[in-house]
Specification:
Elements (H helix, E strand, L loop, with lengths): L14 E5 L6 E6 L8 E5 L22 E11 L1 H4 L6 H6 L2 H8 L6 H12 L12 E5 L5 E16 L5 E12 L2 H4 L4 H19 L15
Antiparallel strand pairs: 1-2, 1-5, 3-4, 4-7, 5-6, 6-7
Length: about 220
């Protein structure tokens, strides 16, 4: 196992946090074993559409925040831990099953919830509505803490131990950032999105603004 010097800077990891959507109590914290080398973001602009009848519309108006999607590949590897079986007995017994299961439970209802809903449905006391999951946050540094809904999830298990437990795997995640149009301003996730947007405004104000001459202009026409 690699020994890190105490003088080395502490590496901040990306990860996922789940909250109770009503109380904002933290339910789980998942830290990525290795930070992905890249992260892709797509921003779909919510502009005002043109009118088919030719009536002029204000081309500068926005209907709301952009629809932002995030994609990344997270790598998991139990090889280093398996070199120290007495320190990591669960890894020896299960490999990466616990870490993969923890991620997969982000998109699965719990057994308790399913059984409780089935019991109420059989008793005729439950209206059939979609099951509500915890509020999921994607954390990528202090500057990027956003409420998300997982939209894509795939696992590639690349190596196994003698008991066929996965010991190396790659998880591909696709997430859609939930904004105030999705959650409302009073929802805990809505407030977190507003903090995220406020931080963007603050960071944008820190960017240098060069003179027009840099663009080859002495002034605007």
């Amino acid at each position: 196992m690699a020994v890190t010097s105490p003088l080395s800077p502490r590496l901040v990891k990306g990860g996922i946090v789940t909250l109770d959507p009503d109380t904002s109590v933290v339910q789980s914290v998942i830290a990525l074993q290795y930070n992905p080398d890249s992260l892709s973001r797509t921003l779909q602009i919510q502009s005002t559409p043109g009118s088919p009848d030719g009536i002029r519309v204000d081309a500068l108006r926005l209907r709301g925040p952009v629809v932002e999607t995030i994609k990344l590949d997270a790598e998991l590897d139990a090889t280093d831990l398996l070199e120290f079986p007495t320190q990591f007995p669960l890894t020896v017994q299960y490999g990466l099953h616990p870490q993969l299961a923890q991620l997969e439970m982000l998109i699965n209802p719990s057994v308790e919830t399913l059984l409780a809903d089935d019991s109420m449905a059989n008793a005729g006391t439950l209206e059939i509505i979609p099951l509500e999951q915890p509020l999921t946050l994607f954390v990528w540094s202090r500057s990027r803490v956003v409420p998300v809904r997982l939209t894509e999830f795939s696992v590639t298990e690349e190596a196994f131990d003698a008991a066929l437990n996965p010991i190396r795997a790659k998880v591909s995640l696709g997430m859609r950032v939930l904004n105030v149009d999705d959650l409302g301003f009073e929802h805990p996730g809505g407030r977190l999105f507003m903090s995220y947007l406020t931080n963007k405004e603050s960071l944008a104000s820190q960017a240098a603004s060069p003179a027009l001459t840099v663009l080859g202009l002495g002034g605007l026409p």
